[in-house]
Amino acid sequence: MKKNVTTILLAALVMLNASAAMVKNEFFTLTTPDDSWFLTNDDALRPYGARVDVARMDARGATLELARIDYIEGAFDPLLYLTHQVVEKKDVFCRAATNFTDIYESFMAGQVAQCVQFKKTSNHYTYDCEATAFNIGYGTVLVITAHRAGDPSMVTRVLNNLTFTVDTTPTTTAAQCVAAASKVVARHHLPIGNNEHLSGAELSKDSSTVTLKVTVPYITKENVNVPAFVMAKRDAWFKQAHESLKFNLLLATAAREHKNLRYHYIDTKGNEIGTLLIYPEEYAQVEKQQVAKSAEAETKNQEMSTPNAEANQLVEQAKPTEVKVQEQPIATPAKTEAESVKTNSLEKPQEVKTVTHVVKQGDNLTRIAKHYGVAVSAIKNANPSIKNDQIKIGQKLTIPRD
User: Fold this and answer.
1) What does pLDDT average to in each consecutive run of 10 residues of the chain (402 residues)?
2) Which of the residues 46, 181, 217, 239 could staple to 53 if both were Cys, CB 3.0 to 4.6 A apart?
3) CA distance 182 to 250
C-alpha cells in the first residue's frame, strides 16, 4: 500500500512538472512547452492587455532571456513599423541598441514577417536581439526577443506556441479595412496624425468615398478660421501623404482602390471644424512630388560637384599656350582693346542657362524666385504666359539661370 502511495505521488509530481503555463487575452494565447523552469517563476509570463512578457532568469536572478509580444491595432506596414519603432529607436527597449542588420523576410506563427537583428548591453551582459513584425487582420504584431550572447535560447520554443484569437482574415479591401477599423475605434481612438485620433470610419453607399472622422483635441470650433484650417490641413496632408499612404493599411487600401478620402475634423465636444476632401487624382500628384523631390536632390548633388569641374576647366583654359608667330606685312590697322572686346561680344553672345520648375502646392512667384535666386521680373519675362502673377499647380515655368 505504501509503495502504491509513493508511486501516485511521483506520478503527480511528474504531471506537475510536465504541465504547461498559459496566458490568454482577447488577441492571442501563449502556451509554454513542458519546461519546469517556467513553473519555478511566477512572473515568467506576465500579461499587460495586448502585451505579454516572457522572461527566464539565471540562478542569480539576472535576466537570461526574454520576449515581448505586442498586438498593435491599426494595421501598419510591417517593414515601415520596424523601421520607425525599432531601427530608429523609438521603442523603449531599443534606445541603447546597436549593430542593426538590414531588415529581412522571415516567418512567425505561420505569417510572412519582417525581421531585424541587433545587440543590446544591459547590466554588464550583452544580448543578441531580434525584432519581428507581421500583420494579423487589422493589427500589427511586434515580437522582440533577447537572449544572453553565447547561451541557447529557449524562449523561441514558447513563441512556437503563439496562437491568435483575433480575426486573422487579411484585410485586403477598403470595405474590410473600414469595418475592421470601426471595430477597433469602438474600443479606443486610433492615432492618425500629430496628436489627432481616428474616431470613426465609414464607406459611402456607392463605395466611392472613405470618410474618416478625426478628433482634433488642441482646437475648438469657436477659435478657428475654417478656410485657413482646411488649407493648413491640406498642406500638411501633402507633406506626409507619401509615407502615410504606405504606413497605414486603411489609407493605403483607399489609395490603391482609387477612393475619395474625406477627412471630417471635429473637436473634443463633437463640433464640426471643417472637411477636407482628397481626390484619387491627387494620389498621383503625391507620387509626382516625391519623384520631383528625388530629382531636385539629385540636381543639388550635381550642382555641388559642378563648380569644381568648371573651375578645373577654367584653369586649363587659362594656361598659356605656345603659339608660333610668323612675320607678315601689316595689311590692316590693329584693333583697339575696346574694339576687340566689342567684336568678341558680338561674335560670342553670352549663354543663359535655364531650368524647368513644376509648380506645386503652396508655390508663388516670390517663393520660386527666392528659391532660385532670381528676380520675379526675370521669371515673368521668361514665361509670357503668366498673367497677373497667377500660376497653377502642375504648370511648367522656365527659370533663367546666369
Assistant:
1) 48 48 87 70 82 87 90 91 94 94 92 95 91 94 92 81 89 94 88 85 95 91 88 90 87 93 92 92 83 75 60 49 42 46 44 76 81 83 83 84 64
2) 46
3) 11
Query: What is the residue whose three cell numbers read 471595430?
Result: 183
CATH number at residue 388: 3.10.350.10
351 DSSP assignment: P
On whether residue 370 sits in a domain, the answer given is: yes
CA distance 22 to 153: 19
Here the cell at position 250 is 486603411
pLDDT for 298 equals 74
Handedness of CA 26, 32, 34, 35 (dihedral sign): negative
Q: Alpha helix (H) ranges present in 97-209?
A: 155-159, 174-187
Mark whether 186 and 277 lie in a shared domain: yes
Give the distance, in angstroms, between the CA of residue 337 and the centroid of all CA atoms in the same chain: 63
Residues paired with residue 275 on neighbouring β-strands, in sequence order: 264
Residues 11 and 143 in one domain: yes
pLDDT value of position 261: 95
C-beta neighbour count of 283 within 10 angstroms: 20
Locate cell 504666359: which residue?
385
Three cell numbers, residue 131 = 525584432
Q: What DSSP state is assigned to residue 91?
A: S
Helix, coil or strand: residue 45: strand
Q: What pairs with residue 339 in β-bridges? A: none
Cα distances from 294 to residues 143, 203, 230, 246, 252, in angstroms, run: 34, 34, 28, 18, 21
- Do 152 and 211 sit in the same domain of this protein? no
Give the range of the structural domain holding residue 199, as residue numbers without chain letter: 174-284
Give me the amino acid identity at 145: T
Residue 323 resides in a domain: no
Name the domain boundary from 164, 190, 217: 164
Category of 161 on φ-ψ map: left (φ > 0), alpha (ψ -120 to 50) or beta: alpha
Give how far the C-alpha of residue 146 lies from the chain's centroid of Cα atoms, to the nearest Å: 25
CATH of the domain at 253: 3.30.300.250
